[in-house]
Specification:
Elements lengths: L1 H7 L7 H19 L2 H10 L11 H14 L5 E5 L6 E4 L5 E5 H6 L2 H17 L2 H11 L3 H6 L1 H29 L3 H15 L11
Parallel strand pairs: 1-3
Antiparallel strand pairs: 2-3
């Protein structure tokens, strides 16, 4: 990466074009490996005891299989992690992994948990988790790494703007088309309303 940057920054050398290509290629490769590396390391450390299987978290496994069929995706590797930050989300930057925080499973009602699970699977179907992980990673970079990995960091920043909203909208629409659960449809419609108007007034009776 350092050699590529050095060659790319020296236009007078015959390797200027090669250096630029090397810099671009390596910045992408490093970004793709780094964007979810910490999460994947924690998942690897947790091992099979955290993995959702038929004999481990069977309720989640049954829900997962049902909704994967309805959305039209293969069952992703799924792990239930003990984390401070609650989430039900897909890790990009490699083979997709569904991460469920124990806190989310405990706090959410069954209907709410089903919606969160379906929403994550809809994102998997739209193939957006990889770029979303890249966008989140770009915001956490130090100034030095942001300069060294400028092509990937710049794209990550741009993706965090309008594209991310469009990707969420696509996932919501897909969920409305594929799901047969009335409450999930209702939750999706509410999410669409809030996304289009963050100041929307939603009464308890609407819920």
């Amino acid at each position: 990466l350092v050699v590529g940057i050095a060659l790319a920054a020296t236009p007078a050398t015959p390797y200027y074009g090669t250096g630029t290509i090397v810099w671009l290629a390596l910045s992408w490769a490093v970004a793709w490996m780094m964007c979810t590396s910490k999460d994947r390391a924690r998942i690897k450390k947790a091992g099979l005891k955290a993995k959702v299987m038929a004999n481990n978290f069977p309720e989640i496994k049954a829900l997962l299989s049902e909704h994967c069929r309805s959305v039209g995706v293969k069952d992703p590797d799924t792990f239930v992690m003990d984390e401070e930050v609650g989430r039900v989300s897909i890790l990009g930057g490699g083979k997709p992994i569904l991460v469920i925080s124990k806190s989310m499973q405990e706090i959410l009602s069954p209907d709410e948990f089903q919606y969160a699970l379906c929403r994550a699977l809809a994102e998997l179907r739209t193939k957006s988790p990889g770029l979303k992980s890249l966008a989140a990673w770009a915001h956490e970079l130090s100034p030095l790494l942001r300069a060294c990995l400028f092509p990937a960091a710049a794209l990550g920043y741009l993706l965090s703007q309008n594209w991310r909203l469009l990707a969420d909208l696509t996932a919501d629409r897909l969920l409305l088309i594929t799901t047969r659960h009335p409450r999930i449809c209702l939750a999706t419609l509410m999410h669409l309303e809030v996304e289009s108007n963050p100041l929307a007034q939603i009464e308890h009776a609407d819920v």
